[in-house]
Amino acid sequence: MAHHDAGKPLSVNVEKVRDATVVRLDGEVDLNVSPKLRAELKALTGERRPLIVIDMSGVPYIDSSGVATLVECLQSTSRYKGKLRLASLSKRAAGVFEISRLDTVFSIHDTVEEAIQA
């Protein structure tokens, strides 16, 4: 029986789309799941993936720990001259980036396709 508690566990799906590595997130990104996300992203930046696109269409909400995890990934990718782009943010998630002024730091796109081609 499905009960509605505080968000479902985050699922992270990684797939190759042409030259990009698309990371599809499904679920809320908060303090509880940030370590899991950090580990997944660290594995990708460890492989020096040239373009990582985070598909956030399935993320209703992201908190500051989630944002910090993405900032860390952005720093890692820029260290090896890779790129990290965000796609399909919900209004609420986008708001978190705007409040923290990180919408100017991240490359944010409406769709995954746009992010890959940018």
Detailed description of the structure:
This protein is α/β, with parallel strands linked by helices. It has a single domain (29-117), classed as STAS domain (Transcription Regulator spoIIAA). Helix content is 37%, strand content 25%. It is built from four helices and five strands; from the N terminus they run E-E-H-E-H-E-H-E-H. It has helices at 34-46, 64-79, 91-99, 112-117; strands at residues 11-17, 20-26, 51-58, 83-87, 107-109. It has a five-stranded mixed sheet. Helix 1 (34-46) links the parallel strand 2 (20-26) and strand 3 (51-58). The longest helix has 16 residues, at 64-79. The radius of gyration is 13 Å and the shape is globular. It starts with 10 loop residues before the first strand and ends with a helix. Mean pLDDT is 93; it is low at 1-5.
Features:
five-stranded mixed beta sheet; 118 residues; 5 strands; Transcription Regulator spoIIAA; globular; single chain; alpha/beta; 4 helices; disordered N terminus
Largest sheet descriptor: 5 strands, mixed
- Neighbour order of strands in the largest sheet: 1-2-3-4-5
Q: So what's the CATH class?
A: Alpha Beta
- This entry's quaternary arrangement is single chain
Report the average pLDDT across residues: 93
In the CATH hierarchy, the architecture is 2-Layer Sandwich
How many helices? The count is 4
**CATH topology annotation:** Transcription Regulator spoIIAA
Count of domain modules: 1
Classify the helix fraction into a percent range.
Answer: 25-40%
Secondary structural class? alpha/beta
CATH superfamily: STAS domain
- Radius of gyration equals 13 Å
Shape: globular
